[in-house]
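Data availability excerpt. The first of two example chains:
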Amino acid sequence: MENKNVIEKKENAARSVYASPKVDVQEIDNEYILQAEIPGASKESVTVTVKDGELEIRAETDISSPGDEVYTEFENIVYHRKFQLGRDIDTESVKAEVNNGVLTLVLLKSEESKSRNIDIN
């Protein structure tokens, strides 16, 4: 009886797929909180760019393995999303954090857009 491999080695196993991450945006007092789902992406793979009133998010997963892949259905995921920012955002003070597959951005409102009480004479 001849010994046959049950699983044949797969050529070009790893693929990349492109995805638009799901987001939630909340307004809290003087800031907006944007949360984007980027499961599997490391902190090092995430880039957040603000340019000309546009916010761009990019992230990528890496499923490379130390050994030769015999068979895989995993895919590298490249996340990408753009948002047009309102004039009320202070683009110089955007803060970002990645935790458990969620990118959280804090977008502060500019001083000019904050409400204030007007003294009446």
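And the second chain:
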Amino acid sequence: MVAPTSICDLLHERFGTANTHKDGHMLFNKKNNQNIESLGSASVMGLHLVSGVIVGIAMGYYLDKYFGTKPWLTLIFLVFGIIAGYKNMFREMKRIQKKESETEARKYAEKD
């Protein structure tokens, strides 16, 4: 038995024909797998932005409570959280673009 190389192969091996549509087309094929990966990447970018803001607000809130400087540290750390979220989102976007360009380069190399 060959080890599955993608989630499509794994699902096909695990469920056999259980993952086929009424007309016989597979629900989990290579193209859908790429769409699912893109959706996952977009979700991760959103999570980076939201988590940065939440962590920034939480840190600022508890520091404000500790030092008695209410609203200033919350606002400052909110801005830091937004900056960190955008930075992480930008880093993830660059990683995705690099992965896509490597995939395209591999496709062109196979054609030649």
